[in-house]
Sequence to fold (918 residues):
Amino acid sequence: MPIRTENISSVAEDKPRSTRPVLARYGVAAGCVLLALAISHGLVPLIGYRAPLILFVAASLVAAWYGGLGPGLVALLVGLPLGDFFFVPPLYQFTGDTPSDLILLLVYAGVTAIGLAAITHLHRARHREEQIRALAARLEQEIEKHRQAEERWHKSEERYRSLYESTPVMMHSIDGNGRLLSVSNCWLEALGYTRAEVIGRKSVEFLTPDCQQYARDVALPEYFKAGVCKDIPYQFVKKNGEILDILLSAIAEKDGHGNIVCSLAVLTQVTERKRAEEALRQSEERYRALAEATFDAVVIHEKGVALDVNHSICEMFGYEPEELLGKNIIDLLVEPESRETIVEHMQTGSEEPYEARVRKKDGSILLVELRGRNLGYKGRLVRVVSAHDITERKRVELALRQSESRYREETTELEALYKSAPWGLVLVDRDLRYVRVNDVVAETIGLPPSQIIGRTIREVIPMLADQTEPNYRRVIETGESIVNFEAHGRTHKQPHLERDWLVSYYPLKDAKGLVTSVNAIILDITERKRAEEAVRRSQERFRTAFAGAAVGMSMMDLEGRFREVNPIFCFIMGYTKEELLGKDFRSITYPPDLNRSLELVGQLLAGQISNFIIEKRYVTKGGSIVWTQSSVSLLQETEGQATGILAIAEDITRRKQAEESLRLTQEQLANHAQTLERRVAERTASLEETVRSLEGVLYHIAHDLRAPLRTLAGFTELLVEAVGPQLDEATTDSAKRIITATKRMDQLILDLLAYGRLGHLRPSFKRVALTEQIEGALLQMAAEVKAKKAKVQLVEPMPSVRADPALLSQALMQLVRNALTFVAPGVVPQVRMWAERREGTVRLWIQDNGIGIEPEYLERIFRVFERLHRADEYTGTGIGLAIVRKGVERMGGTVGVESRPGEGSRFWLELPDAAERG
Fold:
């Protein structure tokens, strides 16, 4: 494809112009001269009068660099008399009496002029470089457009080949020598051959001897003369020797010289009349499917009045089918200047393609290629016309011609292009010798340019010469470009690796139109080819997985008709594959489930959902109901266009039956559960009454136990205060032990009562702000914190939790008290608290700098009466952490600890997040 570029020659010759204001440019020139004058005066006492004259050269060069040649010349002309006047003896007057003075002034003027010329040349070179970079960017854009157009062409070609081979009609194509180029799958099935056994053989080899003689003497000469034949009776010999009666119709494709290059033949079996009638009916159905499946617009009309149209023509012109049927489509769609040509082809019955201008519903104009044929249709002589949109192709062709023309004009700038182009560029003379290659080609071949230039193609790359030399010779002989030729082979650099290239050849002509050389643009498409092969293999793996899947799988068209089903799906439905293909899924869906299925499919086709899963029922061939869980999604092309529907169905009939049995069982269990709940409620009420009675008794017992303890402790304290000085040391120590033990016993009774109340307390859940709750607990413990001189730090912000405020406050106080108690002697307690959100919960951390806990005791410390130290070492009853665990669990949370001996402990409470619960 020719690369469209701008005229580099004309652009590069433009002189760069400064964009700065005139006053600024000339003002800078004057300033530079004055600055040079001032500096020169300062240097005179140091180096004499003549030497400072060189500063005026620098002033002229700076003025030229900033403002261009004009300001530089002004600085030169102003500096010349100033230098003469101030620095050439006799001083302070204009002189030039001595040859040395004149030489000095001439040297100053000459050096300055050379500098000005150099700076001007640099400006022009920089301007030329910017223009070349802009041209390279535009070239890259053109190449990307060409690549995208090429990809669309390849996809269209693949779809045509797939349609040709899979069409349910016996078809074959032959070249100008009568050898088979391609055959349809139906052709192979009818004659019993494989494609490898027939491609390349002459088509007459499959005829009976009599038919071969008839074909050579009569049918083929007439066909090559007319370019078309219809219903020629032949007898084909199948691979097993059976004779097959055939009617053959063919049409030829000719080149620009009228020579037949390719022929397409359609073969119809006529062994029996009944089979012929059935074949005719199937042919009409296949025609409708083909017309709807083709990407070209197809219309059947009678003297211009539309009788039938396919979906593509509606998409092309923007009309609904009912807006076209029964209307004169020539008047409706065709522009006036093209109508006469269309009518002429209708009258003559010509089947040659021609171009026409047509108008869409929105008023826009398209250029289409039309091809028509007169056929019998429903008892009438009608004309079938196909239209292919060539608007884009014509635009591309015009762009290619313009690009080729500009390319010939830009030959003088190839040198710059060869240096900057990111693709391979080659210039070859008429003797197929390399004139120029860029670094990309040299790198690909694996030889330096010096070993390539001047040598022939066959000398440099003999392994590719057979592919490329004919193309170069053809361009030289015809003067026409060859675009997008695919080459395949190896190079010196990587002789073990097969690579693919896309090569375009463009002629370079002299003034007389003679081709002097050929320029080639080479793109490495190896990775693209590998990607295409990977896609093909992926499709093969999908087909294998589809057929061997352990669940039912089916593919439907967008109308809901089955296009492909796997064996498991056939087994589930009780149909054979042939019975299901073409059948609408609605016909086997259980009626009560149909509306929901159609609703979800409609949302899928409308793009509202990407897939859906549904449990639905089908009616099998035997009339029974089968439950399935179906997963449905769209099949799409790479461009995102939907091509069909994929459904994966799992038979869940047994599961549904089990669920029904489970539902009945659950109903029975629910009835039993109601009876049990009623009995449990009655027993619970009786038990609660008993517990309340026992609780009252326990409170009385606890009160009666605490009273003598308080009395004992009080009297002992009074005794110590009254006669303390008279008591010996042992007696005083015993008295203190009695006081400590009674207080510990009193605290133990209080903790046991608190622990017992937690067992039957019903928490009142609220939204609790952790910061406020912790501050309230610390306020109640202010005396203890102050006594210990402890440092308590809260890391905010803290979230809210769902908890019972009283239980949470009790747990927090116990944990803070624990942190204040279990520290090493002489260590100031430090407590740090922070919170973090988890999935639906909030974890509150309480970290201390205490003595730590051995790993084997991390779980035991939350049990009742579990103490790790003697009472004389650390105070406590051994119930505090048990109260914490029981209280937190009553609020639906959890509690834990992380600790190491000597490194402190980190206790944590995890409660429901209030933000999650609302």
